[in-house]
Write a structure and sequence with these properties.
90% of the residues lie in helices and 0% in strands. By secondary structure, the chain is an all-alpha fold. The longest helix has 40 residues.
Length: 195
């Protein structure tokens, strides 16, 4: 093989390699690594929150059954367990808020307006999820007190228990919905940056 042929092959390899590298980096190179890392961590945390709230919803079904049967001590014990899970959820919420903060700060580093908008939609959905999580946690604390009142025979507590269980379930559904919306927005984000 002649020197000229070798140079030509090296030149073609550099051109092809450069093109491949530019395609690879253009899809993610315009996205700050802080954003990508926070996005992944935030998605995992949000899914963990959804899983914990779904577990609590199952506990609420059991609490409702026990309440109807008049087994207040067992209903109260399960509510205490759900309240402890609520503390785990709160800790996860703090971690999610930290990741959302990092994502928000890194938004300006995203070149594409459309990608930035999709990322902003995801951030907004995660913030809405956190807001509903606060309501969820408050309702769960109120349920604990309502069950204590019901166990003590305070009039009207039975109705309050049923109302709170419904409110907690509604908040859990909203949490799931906002998590799904955040995921859909990030799917759009991925589609946009790959173009």
């Amino acid at each position: 093989m002649s020197q000229r042929t070798k140079l030509f092959i090296v030149f073609i390899a550099i051109v092809v390699g450069g093109y491949g590298a530019s395609r690879l980096f253009s899809s993610s190179g315009n996205i700050p690594s802080e954003f990508q890392d926070a996005r992944l961590r935030g998605a995992l945390i949000a899914q963990n929150i959804v899983n914990l709230s779904n577990d609590s919803s199952k506990s609420l079904e059991k609490i409702s059954e026990l309440d109807k049967k008049g087994d207040f001590p067992e209903a109260l014990a399960i509510t205490l367990g759900a309240t402890e899970k609520s503390q785990d959820i709160r800790e996860q919420a703090v971690a999610l808020a930290d990741e959302i903060s990092i994502m928000t700060k890194a938004l300006s580093g995203i070149q594409s307006f459309e990608a930035r908008q999709a990322a902003l939609e995801s951030i907004a959905s995660r913030l809405a999820l956190l807001n509903r999580l606060i309501s969820y946690s408050n309702y769960l604390s109120n349920l604990l007190q309502a069950l204590r009142d019901r166990f003590s025979g305070i009039p009207g507590a039975a109705k309050q228990v049923a109302v709170l269980v419904n409110q907690i379930n509604a908040e859990a559904q909203a949490i799931n919905s906002f998590n799904s919306q955040a995921g859909q927005a990030m799917d759009r984000f991925d589609t946009i940056i790959k173009q």
